[in-house]
Amino acid sequence: MTASNTERNVYLSGTLVPESQAKISIFDSAVMLGDCVTESTRTFAHKPFKLGEHIARLYRSLKVARIDPGLSPEEMLAVTLDLLQQNLQTIDHGDDFWIVHNISRGLAVAGPDPTVAQSAATVMIHNSMMDLTGWAEFFAQGCHAVTPMSRAIPSQSLDARIKNRSRMNYTLAEVEVKLVDEKAQSVLLDIHGNVSENKGGNVFIVSDGVLKTPSTSNCLAGVSRATVLELALELNITCEETSLQPYDLYTADELFFTSTPYCIMPATKFNGLPVGNGEVGAITRKILAAWSELVGVDIQGQAEAQL
Amino acid sequence: MTASNTERNVYLSGTLVPESQAKISIFDSAVMLGDCVTESTRTFAHKPFKLGEHIARLYRSLKVARIDPGLSPEEMLAVTLDLLQQNLQTIDHGDDFWIVHNISRGLAVAGPDPTVAQSAATVMIHNSMMDLTGWAEFFAQGCHAVTPMSRAIPSQSLDARIKNRSRMNYTLAEVEVKLVDEKAQSVLLDIHGNVSENKGGNVFIVSDGVLKTPSTSNCLAGVSRATVLELALELNITCEETSLQPYDLYTADELFFTSTPYCIMPATKFNGLPVGNGEVGAITRKILAAWSELVGVDIQGQAEAQL
Amino acid sequence: MTASNTERNVYLSGTLVPESQAKISIFDSAVMLGDCVTESTRTFAHKPFKLGEHIARLYRSLKVARIDPGLSPEEMLAVTLDLLQQNLQTIDHGDDFWIVHNISRGLAVAGPDPTVAQSAATVMIHNSMMDLTGWAEFFAQGCHAVTPMSRAIPSQSLDARIKNRSRMNYTLAEVEVKLVDEKAQSVLLDIHGNVSENKGGNVFIVSDGVLKTPSTSNCLAGVSRATVLELALELNITCEETSLQPYDLYTADELFFTSTPYCIMPATKFNGLPVGNGEVGAITRKILAAWSELVGVDIQGQAEAQL
Amino acid sequence: MTASNTERNVYLSGTLVPESQAKISIFDSAVMLGDCVTESTRTFAHKPFKLGEHIARLYRSLKVARIDPGLSPEEMLAVTLDLLQQNLQTIDHGDDFWIVHNISRGLAVAGPDPTVAQSAATVMIHNSMMDLTGWAEFFAQGCHAVTPMSRAIPSQSLDARIKNRSRMNYTLAEVEVKLVDEKAQSVLLDIHGNVSENKGGNVFIVSDGVLKTPSTSNCLAGVSRATVLELALELNITCEETSLQPYDLYTADELFFTSTPYCIMPATKFNGLPVGNGEVGAITRKILAAWSELVGVDIQGQAEAQL
Amino acid sequence: MTASNTERNVYLSGTLVPESQAKISIFDSAVMLGDCVTESTRTFAHKPFKLGEHIARLYRSLKVARIDPGLSPEEMLAVTLDLLQQNLQTIDHGDDFWIVHNISRGLAVAGPDPTVAQSAATVMIHNSMMDLTGWAEFFAQGCHAVTPMSRAIPSQSLDARIKNRSRMNYTLAEVEVKLVDEKAQSVLLDIHGNVSENKGGNVFIVSDGVLKTPSTSNCLAGVSRATVLELALELNITCEETSLQPYDLYTADELFFTSTPYCIMPATKFNGLPVGNGEVGAITRKILAAWSELVGVDIQGQAEAQL
Amino acid sequence: MTASNTERNVYLSGTLVPESQAKISIFDSAVMLGDCVTESTRTFAHKPFKLGEHIARLYRSLKVARIDPGLSPEEMLAVTLDLLQQNLQTIDHGDDFWIVHNISRGLAVAGPDPTVAQSAATVMIHNSMMDLTGWAEFFAQGCHAVTPMSRAIPSQSLDARIKNRSRMNYTLAEVEVKLVDEKAQSVLLDIHGNVSENKGGNVFIVSDGVLKTPSTSNCLAGVSRATVLELALELNITCEETSLQPYDLYTADELFFTSTPYCIMPATKFNGLPVGNGEVGAITRKILAAWSELVGVDIQGQAEAQL
To answer: Which of A189, A244, A250 sits opposite E64 (nearest CB)?
Structure first.
């Protein structure tokens, strides 16, 4: 991973601007109201992974949030690919990109109706280099998963499946788990005490050879989550979408998170106790290997190369 | 209300910039994570109202959100007053300002730890002209208060008293009530079905001469709310902080909201039914009059003059 | 649909009386306590549909409500068929009947024990002409499904599967959705925010070709619901009984209700947003067609003929 | 108490009919939907007690239920008093009346909109002789209060303060407590496990000389409840509206119910354990005595005379 | 069943002591804090049944409770079998043993940290003669299952799958059901009103030939429960792990409990109503017969022989 | 604090035995079921503090748990004082005693009815020397209060006011907070996210000069809690029993726990953030001083002398 000397561009509501100039008004509804939906896609070997599915989910979020992005899904795909094409020259062959869409309602109006904006939606698309240094050591050692006291926002308040940027509760939950271990990764519970999700990912366990994950009634329907379920199917691993409690994680043989940047992140400790034998599990490694094969990138190797 | 020809300035992390240039990076944690705390204060006759209390609450929000603004409360007060002093020349004698503080954690870091930022906090302070046109008609006629299906975020997920900008659930709740009446104002319930708050304000009723409002265990501890309770005390109106359900609002004699911009906003309809006799109530008017007297501004008159 | 000149009869606790004379004491427990269980069956081409299943469910409701109807299930079936036979002559060939059973505990006793009555149960069976004019336009255009703020009664208070006449909460929920659209049909959520049921029916969605409906842990185990699941099985449509939230309905490809009178009622709008492409969906139409075939009646045609 | 040989009349939507003829259509929304609001007032020495307050509450219920009774409150009062006047001649000097108002939405319409009726509201007013034989023994011995497994309906489903006739859950709760003791009186808990109400009354305890009762956020705002609080105030007994759990009832010194017919009903056993010393408590007797004095009727004596 | 004249031994933290001498300090954390995990295994024809699975679950409980027993699972198995071998001579051929493990954290420390003990864990293993007289009559007649008002402890407070000795809430729930019937067996609901578990067992119903039991998200993952599911699989009985409410039990064809001592205990009454036809059901008898065959002991016969 | 060379006695169901011999059967219901109620009283200058109130509460717990201790409250008081008198000679003048009552139902019966025991209740009374070394440093520095993910048991499962020994959930909660700081003291939330209690004490805050503590609807009605409220009243400090959330603790000026051994334990850190200025607060010190004066013992001094 070496820094490129060419600055990347950002797509900002129809124009391309260099990253350092990519700014929005402090009156934007993203800033004033957290009123912004989002998607994060990554590339593998410079090719976007399941970009169509991410864009489809983005449009579901836009629909429920009633934000008109001013672009059709096809146009969104096209501008995304154009931007990526341009920016790819700024990174090394071995590195990859994070393709992030943030779409806010536009300039906010102070007044009785926050559901209309003074301007068209603000469409922000950027490509960050996929910097995995923060997670890289976890592939081999596993991370420490910790449960915060704060609970995930219930769907009757704001459905986690609207992938959005009103995420302060995730950040505060992370603060809580960092009190236990500065590298801890959170496992949020829902208000009934069931395992919900990670700040940006889903949670899986392996128990007696069965792969289990919460159903999406209390967490994001992650694209990486779906990929793991597909890979497991191909590998003949039995899968269950079910309700999990901390007891299941304490007594699991394996535990891992899924999210766009790291794909699969093993956890070998849960609230201070070893998960299984305290090492990254066989099924976790098997699914990660299948994923690496699927995309033609050694996911773990790429991350570790950044260290 | 006439537009001034001089552009106002914004305080942006230590420098003053014209409003039209007040922009922040799309990588700011305000945009990327909704990780931003806020306060809104208003002036009356160009003097800030309870600015000290607003700044004290801002620092409580900052503390719980663990954001270091880089300024002491005294410094924050000073820069706020300086900015206001400069901007006051841009508005007419009869108009007033909204003083808004937004403080994010700074440039977000993509990675496992959202609780640290790449930069110092982003401190945004701006003065919007207090445009009350959206609410002005409600002073005389009362607004239509409507209950959305979505519920306020419970404190175990994110306490409403951390005044923050992760507010998508408020916007979606507003969308729901706008389906009933395009000028409707929301009354959010908490997840147990108790009246919680408005998207940016508190809810009060008058029943048999007693002023009642939810306790702050499920809503923002509004500064305007506190002002109403103080004024009621002086006016010898009995007050109760209690638990309210929609039944209480349906059968109340009077209903109003409180918030910084409009101070007191009467509601004369609740979910399609008249509140009391369907007119703005006597106690509501009495408290609003006392407030006008307190601040030396005819609050209703100022708003109506903008129509 | 032409009105018949012969008045229909009603079965009233053992005797047949003309509809206009079918009256019960104001002291009946149906009136005094809402203490009445019920079933609604319809005919297709003058033949009752799944009457045995409706009567079996009626006896489950009677059992849990501890009401002794004074008739065995076989006797209930016989008197129901006798009544129907008599009444059929009052309607046109193209019309059908709604067979409604209402059974209350009998004359209520004012005093400490509402669980005994002063008389035998009041057994009311009537045949209303199946007037579908209120729903007829929805077959082609779809209705507008709207979520009220009020929630379904939880099973720990009163299980929805006891099909009963203590239904004020449904009526008030309907009032709420009529504020949005005077023809809106309600989608009640349970107290956890999961989709529960309609005032008299069940809710289904189609997403990516999969038919989904809430499990009966929070809604009525509808006979029409069961019919749809059976037809879908025959049509090789994958079905899931699962937990649904409003997000699922917003993002579904198709949405419909099931209930005895209309069988399947498409919804093409949900809380103001189009469902799928805003038109009645292919799978919805396919299942309705299969139902029409099953019963030998063009269900949609019959309804539209009444307009 | 001797039966009168003159039949009483019932007010039925504008006409007076003898009780035995007081019947409503089986298609009335009271029967078909439990869509009926109600009030029960009693007389003391043939004078109605707080009839104005009962009628005021009736109109609050009507408002929230959106039923138009077709009479103003003043007219309702007048017809109620007229009816009472006529019927009083049918009872002995020592007996009293129960004045019951039941008002349904009118003839129900089968179709998509239960919020409108085919006819004007059905107004039923009747005067039952206040038969206290079922409760009479409890004045001296106290009753057995028992907690059922079923829970009160939460306000977010149907607010208990809308005094209505959709009461099957109360009847089923009574069935449950009758399993413990055939004369048991229920104490319903709300869904959080807090004491809510009795099937038709409120619950009070005395602990260390303080009179406590649940606030009306989870129970009916009973007129008898209010009377007890007023009498206690006059008797210098400290009162608290608070949250109670079964522990409070188990460890209370005194326990009683309040309701229109019996006013105050002591409970000397709670779930099989004696309350206090197992006898009717001093404060309970004191308040009941004050009530008897207030209304000029020996409440306990009148009831016991009926045995 | 005849009492043996030789006293059995107990394994007490490494030493064998006669039962009558098997005592622990009143300062043990089992006594002071209920801080003790447990397993109960039984023998059939003097052979322990699924002892390996019970010990595996014991170590899961120990792990989550963070108690170090000072023995490996293999050592625990060995000392358990040794003890059993010795004690078997004290009972008749036709009788069997209950093998109970209780492991507390050790001598409790009064002070700020209950998570450490002053001593090594207290390991108690005893063999009680399997006295089934209390249950024996239920095999033929079925027991009376009753729902208490108290609810099972939610997993977010203490997960039922940690098999532990902090069981006062079960005892109090039993008290409540004994008010209904002195031989009643409890069916606890969880805090949402779903069927959870019995004081020491799991709950099953048979409805239309399908065997249903709650998933383990709100109850103990019983070893007997697992045995029933295995036997049902072999017998080609369809099984569902699902969410059940009291309605399901009221309307089931068969109802039974499972627990280590009695294996399968039919219930023929639920809250006073007959289950199915009021007799022990065919599927219940079939599974019990299969179990008897599996273990070579006539389970019902053995129990009845003790009467 | 010097160890005495005379061993203390324990009262064990009617007999006095030396502490080292104070043992109970492993078949006792305290061990087998956690079926044991308890009280902890302390002495100040060798005099028991509020022993009468503790014994009264013990009998409330016994009543609700339906355990018959076999002694009247007066007898319990007498044997307690006798025991204390004997044991007092074993400690130094400057030290004090912890008087602990543990009363179990007696020898447990394995079988369907845990509510009866094979023997009379097991009454255990012991006097531990009040060893405050674990807490002593907190008087001057304050402790670190931390919120675990596990929640207090709701009253509908087991009311915290039944002071009992089924306390595994407290121990597991302590484990969780020890992950943050090995000396952390827990602040449990209830299942709604409101502050409940500490593992053995109550929680108080001071905000703007007002002393606040949760009402006893979700926590133990502590005797120390009551003492603080009495002392505050005498000191003219305004008190509120209210609902508190973590936000209140984060933003409080002072925070402390109350419990029998330490009386008042200041907390100067909450979840890693300083409380107020990070030092023990003035009002906390004032109340502690008043308590010391009340009992004639320098509470803090006594504890610190043990270090």
So the answer is: A250
pLDDT tens per residue across span E186-237: 999 999 999 999 988 999 999 999 999 999 888 888 999 999 999 999 999 9
Q: Is residue E3 part of a domain?
A: no
**F108 in Cβ contact with F27 (< 8 Å):** yes
Q: Which residues contact F230 (CB under 8 A, 6 or more apart)?
A: none
* Residue at F216: amino acid letter: T
E254 plus E165 within the same structural domain: yes
Query: Which residue of A194, A244, A247 is in closest CB contact with E64?
Result: A247
For residue E203, what are the domain limits?
Answer: 135-305
Q: Closest by alpha carbon to E143, among E102, E194, E182?
A: E182
Residues A108-117 as b or e (16 or more Cβ within 10 Å = b): bbbebbbbbb
DSSP line for D184-233: -EE-EE-TTS-EEE-SSSEEEEEETTEEEEE-TTSS---HHHHHHHHHHH
pLDDT of residue E5: 55
A242-299 pLDDT per residue, tens = 999 999 999 999 999 999 999 999 999 999 999 999 999 999 999 999 999 999 999 9
User: DSSP letter at A208?
Assistant: T
Touch F-B: 3+ C-beta pairs under 8 A: yes
Whether E contacts B, i.e. 3 or more CB pairs less than 8 A apart, is: no
What pLDDT digit, counting tens, does each position of B181-202 carry? 999 999 999 999 999 999 889 9
Q: Are C46 and C88 in contact (CB under 8 A)?
A: yes
Q: Which of F130, F160, F194 is a domain's end point?
A: F130
What CATH number should be reported for the domain holding residue B266?
Answer: 3.20.10.10
The chains found to touch E (3+ Cβ pairs under 8 angstroms) are: A, C, D, F
Of C105, C126, C178, the CB nearest to D26: C126
Which of A191, A192, A241, A270 to mutate to test binding with chain E, by most E CBs within 10 Å of its CB? A192
Q: Which chains touch D (3 or more CB pairs under 8 A)?
A: B, C, E, F
Domain end among D87, D114, D130: D130
CB contact under 8 A, B154 and F193: yes
pLDDT at A1: 40
Write the CB contacts of D72 (distance below 8 Å, at least 6 apart in sequence): none
Same domain, C176 and C245: yes
E195 and E58 within one domain: no
pLDDT number for residue D5: 55
Asked whether residue D273 carries a pLDDT value surpassing 70, the answer given is: yes
Neighbours of chain A (3+ CB pairs under 8 A): B, C, E, F
Whether C and A touch (3+ CB pairs < 8 Å), yes or no: yes
Interface test with D, best of B149, B188, B210, B247 (most D CBs within 10 A): B247
What average pLDDT score do residues B65-73 get? Answer: 97
- Same-domain status, C163 and C90: no
For the segment F113-148, what is each residue's pLDDT rounded down to a tens digit? 888 888 999 999 999 999 999 999 999 999 999 999
Confidence of residue E85 (pLDDT cuts 50, 70, 90): very high
Read off the pLDDT band of F5 (50, 70, 90): low
pLDDT of the residue at C218? 86
Gyration radius (Cα) of chain C, Å: 19
Q: Based on the fold, state whether residues B66 and B165 are members of the same structural domain.
A: no
Q: How many CB pairs under 8 A join A and B?
A: 207
In a domain, D3, yes or no: no
B13 shares a domain with B147: no
Structural tokens at position F25: 């059967």
Nearest CB to B149 within list C148, C175, C181: C148
Structural domain tally of chain F?
2
Find the chain A residues whose C-beta atoms sit closer than 8 A to any C-beta of E. 189, 192-194, 242-247, 250-251, 273
Count of CB pairs separated by less than 8 Å, A with F: 29
- Complex confidence, ipTM: 0.95
Nearest to A162 among C189, C192, C247 (CB): C247
CA F272 to CA F250: how far, in whole Å? Answer: 10
- Going by C-alpha positions, the residue among A306, A295, A216, A219 that lies closest to residue A263 is A295
Instruction: Say yes or no: D39 and D14 in one domain.
Output: yes
